[in-house]
Design goal:
- InterPro entries: DUF4142 (IPR025419).
- This is DUF4142 domain-containing protein.
- Pfam families: DUF4142.
- The chain is about 55% helix and about 5% strand.
- It is mainly α.
- It has a domain of about 160 residues: Up-down Bundle (Ferritin).
- It has a two-stranded antiparallel ribbon with strand order 1-2.
- The protein starts with 13 loop residues before the first helix and ends in a 40-residue tail after the last helix.
- About 30% of the residues are buried.
- About 15% of the residues have low confidence.
Length: about 240
Amino acid sequence: MRTPRPTPTAACTLSAALSAALLLGGCTALGRQSTDGGAQPPGVTAENAAQSTVTTPWGPLGPADRLLITDVRRAVLWEIPLGREAARRAARPATRRALTEIARRDARLDDLTRETAARVNVALPDQPTADQHAWTSEITGKSGTEYDKTAVARLRTAQGLLYARIAAVRASTRNTLVRQFARQCATVVDGHLALLEGTGFVTGDTLPDPPAVTGAPAPGAGNRPPSPAPAATSLVS
C-alpha cells in the first residue's frame, strides 16, 4: 500500500516548506538579522516584538534564532512519546530500535534546548503543534507494518524540515550560542535521519518533492558516463 505523503501544515505543505527551507527561506522568512539590539519601546505590537532582535552576551538574538529553539522543543515533545510507543507497537525490530533510539537522543536534545533557552531568555512551549498532534493521531490509528511505514514517513519528513531550518540558522545567525546550538542540533537530526533511513521504510513515495532550483546542470547525453573531471588542483594556479 502506498504510504500517503504528509498532509498540509497550517502555513504551507510540507514539501513546499522543505523546498523553501532548503533554499534558506522556509514558510517563515529568516531574513537578514539586524544588529542594533536593545529593548522595544513602550506600545510596541506583539507582531513587531516577535520580529525584533535583542542584545545578549553572545551577540544579537533574532527571530530566526528564537524560532529554531522553539521548533526543536516542539519536535522533541512529539517524537519522544512516539518513540516510546513504537518500542511496544512497531511491527519490525528495525523500526522499534530506530524510534526508541530517537526518543533517547531527543531526551538529551531537550536538555540542551532548555539550557540554551534559559540562557537567552526564550520561553519554550509545553505542547507540540496541532500538526504534530495530528501526525501522532494518524500514526497511532495504524497497526502492523502500516504503523511502521506511517511513523517513519512522518518522522522522516519532519526531520528533513527541521534539518533545513537548522542549516539556515547555522549559516546566518550572529549569535555564537545559537550557532553552537544549531551545530549540535544538526548532528542529532542527521543521526535521526540515518536511523529512519535504516528501517527500510524511507522510499520515494514517502518523501516530499525536491526543491525547485535554477542553474542545475543538464543530465548527461546518452548512456555513456561523462569523462572523469580533472583534479581541481590541476585547474588552479
